[in-house]
Design brief:
This protein is of the alpha/beta class. The chain is 54% helix and 16% strand. It has 3 domains: 2-94, Helix Hairpins (Orthogonal Bundle), CATH 1.10.287.70; 103-227, Rossmann fold; 236-326, 2-Layer Sandwich (Alpha-Beta Plaits), CATH 3.30.70.1450. The protein has 13 helices and 12 strands. The longest helix has 50 residues, at 50-99. The radius of gyration is 33 Å and the shape is elongated.
Length: 330
């Protein structure tokens, strides 16, 4: 804005000066200013008097200074906004390409549509490393511009999944827009990594059943979940408010975590009361998922948490981190 303002001021004052000093009309005065500051070499519009020559000299010298300043600002803006930005993106992409073969315990997200984008954003907020697999060139570029590791290709191709590091990944989220492709990706992923946690999207409950048979550990039907949530907001708004609180919308330091009781953990084999979760660790034990698959909601004080059980607890991040380390999840 400042360079443009300076240029307009020079044009306006120069036009006014020639008009008053030489008595020329406004157009001839303006044209004289333009050919003076651009130094194009045209002749004078009209013969200049001595005062006019002196004023023209001031206009030329001032125009050279203002013009150089405008050119410098425009060049710097172009370099910072286009050249430097492109260079930074190129270097960032090169760095991510070098890091990709070294990633471990990451999450592969197949599909970078609206759902895939939201999955990636939520995982990144929890400091989880994400690798996007996307066949569409535009969506693939968008994922990389958003700062995610990305592989361009069809997730149903096993070579593409290997390129995304499926052998080293901790989980995979299948979020393409087609149930048939989702099913094929789930089959491929489970065949390559039977122990891999696989979450898949489904359009309806029929597709969800097929995906579970294909090997998906968890299946999410966004339309069904959205409809149920809207119904709950109408019928039980207080419950929804509590769930929103638990999902960090109102209290960003409150978290709900699932912690595994590992072999050799100091709390393994102790009761809820003996481990003193509420007083010692300042967390609330909501449920326990036992190693045999059974679940206990709000376990009693004498309930024993053994190795392999998963404890679902709520509390502040710092307290959960301390408990996580004691349970061997660090």
């Amino acid at each position: 804005m400042v360079p443009l303002f300076a240029m307009f001021c020079l044009l306006g004052l120069g036009t006014l000066g020639f008009h008053l000093i030489e008595g020329w009309n406004w157009w001839d005065s303006f044209f004289m200013v333009v050919i003076s500051i651009t130094t194009v070499g045209y002749g004078e519009v009209h013969p200049l008097s001595r005062p006019g020559q002196m004023f023209a000299s001031v206009v030329i010298l001032t125009g050279m200074g203002v013009g150089s300043y405008v050119l410098l600002v425009l060049t710097r803006t172009f370099f910072e906004g286009v050249v430097e930005g492109s260079l930074q993106r190129a270097l960032s992409r090169r760095r991510m390409e070098r890091e990709l073969p070294k990633l471990t315990e990451h999450t592969i997200v197949c599909g970078y549509g609206r759902l895939g984008h939201e999955i990636c954003i939520s995982l990144a907020a929890e400091w989880r490393v994400v690798v996007v697999v996307e066949p569409d060139q535009e969506a693939f570029e968008r994922a990389r511009d958003d700062g995610f590791h990305a592989v361009h290709g069809d997730a149903s191709d096993e070579s593409v999944l290997r390129q995304a590091g499926i052998e080293r990944a901790s989980s995979i989220a299948v979020a393409t827009s087609t149930d048939a492709i989702n099913t094929y990706v789930v089959l491929s992923a489970k065949e390559m990594r039977p122990d891999l946690l696989v979450l898949s999207r489904a359009d309806d409950m029929i597709a969800a059943k097929r995906l579970r048979r294909a090997g998906a550990d968890r299946v999410v039907a966004p339309t069904q979940i959205g409809g149920q949530r809207m119904a709950h907001m109408l019928l039980r708004p207080g419950v929804v408010d509590f769930l929103d609180l638990a999902q960090l919308n109102d209290f960003p330091d409150l978290f709900i975590e699932e912690l595994l009781m590992s072999e050799g953990a100091a709390l393994a084999g102790k009761t809820i009361q003996g481990a003193d979760y509420s007083k010692q660790w300042q967390v609330l034990v909501l449920a326990v998922k036992q190693a045999d698959g059974s679940r206990v909601f709000r376990p009693p004080a004498d309930f024993v948490v053994d190795v392999g059980d998963k404890v679902i607890v709520a509390g502040h991040r710092a307290n959960l981190a301390e408990l996580q380390a004691v349970m061997g999840n660090a």
